[in-house]
Amino acid sequence: MANQNFRLDGKIALVTGASYGIGFAIAKALHAAGAKIVFNDIKQEFVDRGLASYKEAGIDAKGYVCDVTNEEQVNEMVKDIEKTVGNVDILVNNAGIIKRIPMIEMKAEEFRAVIDVDLNAPFIVSKAVIPTMIKMGHGKIINICSMMSEFGRETVSAYAAAKGGLKMLTRNIASEYGEYNIQCNGIGPGYIATPQTAPLRERQPDGSRHPFDSFIISKTPAGRWGEADDLGGPAVFLASEASDFVNGQILYVDGGIQAYIGKQPK
Length: 266
Ligand code: NAP
Ligand code: GCO
Description:
Elements: E1 12-16, H1 21-32, E2 36-41, H2 44-56, E3 62-65, H3 71-84, E4 90-93, H4 108-136, E5 139-144, H5 157-177, E6 182-189, H6 211-219, H7 232-239, E7 250-253
Parallel strand pairs: 1-2, 1-4, 2-3, 4-5, 5-6, 6-7
Helix pairs in contact: 1-7, 3-4, 4-5
The structure holds NADP nicotinamide-adenine-dinucleotide phosphate (NAP) and D-gluconic acid.
D-gluconic acid (GCO) is lined by residues 98, 100, 146-148, 153, 156, 159, 189-191, 196-197, 200.
C-alpha cells in the first residue's frame, strides 16, 4: 500500500520562474510541507526580489539566474544544485510566457519564443533532472499546463499550442520513466489573478470591469478568479508520496469553469 504521506520533509524542490506569481505560491506550499526550495528567474533583479519575498515568508530559498530556454545554463544550474544543495526530488516546470496576438498578425519569431519557454524549456529542465531521479529511484515532475491545454481562444495560438504540447510531454515523460518510480503530472490552472493575467482584469476607463473579467466570472461556478495560493494544495499532493500511483494526469484547478455552461447574462 503506497504511503499516503503528504509530507515533503527532506525533499528538494526546484520551481522554475518562481520569484512571484503561481511559482512562488507553489513553492510556499511545498516548503510548508517540508521541502527545501530552489528557484530560478531570468534576471538577477528578479531573483533578488524573489529571495526577499521568500525571506519575508520565512523561507530560506536558494535562487539562480537561469534562462530555462538555455540548455547550457539549465545544466549548469542543476549541476550546482546537486553539488551545493542536493539532488532534485521534485521539479515544477512553472516558468512561462504568453503573447496575445491574432495569429495572422503574429511573427514567426514571436510564436517560436512562446513555444521555447512554455514547451521546449520543460523538456530541457526535465531532461536535466531525470538521470539523477533514475539513480535515486524516485522523482516527481509537475508541469504547469493550462486550460489552453484543452481549449483555444482568439489571440493565444502560440500559448495554446505550447500548453497542448506540454500536456502530451507530461504524458510521454510519465510513459517513458514511470518504470523508474518517476511520476510526471500536470496542473492545469483556470484563470488565476497574477501579473500574467493582469491585462485581462484591468478596470475600464469608466471604472467598470474588463469584459473578459466579467466573462470569466460568469463562466466560473466559483464566481471568482483563482488565486495563486489555490494551486498550493494540488501541487503538494502531486509532489508527495500520496500520488505515487498517479502518473500522466493533468489536474485541473479551475474553479469548475470546464464543467459549467456559464451563467445566463442578466
Ligand atoms: P507570470 O506572473 O508571468 O510569471 C511567470 C514567471 O516565469 C516569471 O517569474 C518569469 O520571470 C518567469 N520566466 C519567464 N520566462 C522565463 C525564462 N525564459 N527563464 C526563466 N524564467 C522565466 O506567470 P504566472 O501567471 O505566475 O504563470 C506561471 C505559469 O502558470 C506559467 O507557465 C503560465 O503559463 C501558467 N498558467 C498561468 C495561468 C494564469 O491564469 N495566471 C493559468 C494557467 C497557467 P520574469 O519575471 O523574469 O519574466
Ligand atoms: C488568456 C489567459 C489564459 C490563462 C491560463 C488559462 O489569455 O486566455 O492568459 O491563457 O493564462 O492559461 O488557463
